[in-house]
Amino acid sequence: MDIKSSVQNNDDKNNKPQYLQIAETIKNKIFLGTLSVGTKLPPERELAKKYDSGRPSVREAIRSLENMGLVETKHGDGSYVANNMKNVMFSSLSAISRMNSVTISEIMEFREMFEYEAVKLAAERRTTDQLKKMEEILIKIKVSDTIYEFQKLDGLFHTLISEMSNNALIIESYLAMNKLFYDSIKDTTVAITLEGESSEELFSYHKPIYDSIRDSDPVLAQIFMNKHFNRIRKSIKDIK
């Protein structure tokens, strides 16, 4: 069965607009690797002929793929498969969060599961340059004097842990989920700060994690990350 008849049959079966059928067919080709990152899509005229549709339907399909982060259009050049999978993942996670009214506690549980493994790999794989960058962030955390400054530095610290894993999937996944993570960091930081903890105390939660990564000790890194999350979980309970 060719692509054209597949689209037509699916349209009869699901009664979906044809532009959605076209978008879904192209999306599946991208996910299966048939269309790789950087591949230029055929012009609208060719796609319309291929899918036996009008050009407006093709145009709407491309727009839908752009909204999903799968395709980017360069003015005067054409549409290409985008290197934007983190945007696709973030859109999916955001939709899941909205539809299920995900709580801060649930976000933190997800973050904890994710970072527990990331910090282990960070201790095993970090580079000297990455370690130096983390040390610089840590020094700034120690002297931070506003909630907002600490939020930014805390986000950089945890993002760097994912980068230290030197695992492309972990890095891209963390970037995709960064908004959800940052929201959880923001809320718990406010809770901790309202309890009167100083920047020195906030620094003390991160320093042992840094030391363990510096010493290439994945077991201790996970222990101190767990202690860090225990403190965050307590803050979440306190503000419920």
Automatic annotation (TrEMBL):
Boundaries of each HTH gntR-type domain copy?
16-84
Q: Does the keyword DNA-binding apply?
A: yes
Q: Looking at the Swiss-Prot or TrEMBL record, what is one Pfam family this protein matches?
A: GntR
SMART domains, alphabetized:
FCD, HTH_GNTR
Which keywords accompany this UniProt record?
DNA-binding, Pyruvate, Transcription, Transcription regulation
Q: Which PROSITE patterns match?
A: HTH_GNTR (PS50949)
Instruction: State what protein this is by name.
Output: GntR family transcriptional repressor for pyruvate dehydrogenase complex
Species annotation: Peptoniphilus koenoeneniae
